Amino acid sequence: MRDLASRLRRLPPSCGPVRLVGIDGHAGSGKSTFAGQLADALGGAPVLHLDDIASHDELFDWTGRLLSEVITPLGRGETARYGVYDWHARRFGPPRALPPAPVILLEGVGAGRRALRPYLALLLWMDLPREESWTRGRVRDGAELREFWEGWVEAEQQHFAEDPSRPFADLLVRQRREGYEIATGAPETVGPDRDVTHGDGPASMC
Question: How many domains does one find in the chain?
């Protein structure tokens, strides 16, 4: 993890003075846990969870708000302020401040979407099959959210069918019994905004 953190610090800024790093993957793939450990390795880097941006009414249609509330001010070197969604109360709470930092982690399903990739210094993909990820997520959330998960799976499938992230990932993250294995991204297909693919590279543990 320290090696990855060192690599991120050396990247050129991608959004104003910020190195914005996307961590994408299927729901339940371990993005939040990995982001937390990486943030610690970075000395307490801020983590923006897309679960705070999304809502029941906008599971994936939050791009405009993220761009206006977060990306634009960070791009000017200013503190961003975004509303945090309360999934139990079903409403947005008071704005949360996000000052520009050397590295900010953007974690959640859709972090590598087409509209955000121009602002990312690096995109990581949690490389766990979707069915295994969803099973882990359902177990984590319990019976209380069973109905929500039924709608979520359909929405996530539609999102990635229309706007895939994995083919554009710079690095693939695979959880092992101890630590993580990091491999060079290996796109499955080439998207309309990328005509160069990356082959598999040597993996390393962090």
Answer: 1
Give the whole-angstrom CA distance, residue 124 versus residue 46: 16
pLDDT tens-digit readout, 54-92: 999 999 999 999 999 999 999 999 999 999 999 889 999
Domain that holds residue 168: 2-205
Give burial (CB, 10 Å; 0-12/13-18/19+) of 11. Answer: middle
Q: 145, 44 in Cβ contact below 8 A?
A: no
Provide the whole-model pTM: 0.86
Please give the Cα distance from 87 to 196 (Å, whole number): 39
Fill in the amino acid letter for 68.
S
Residue 139's identity, in one-letter code, is V
**CATH code for position 81:** 3.40.50.300
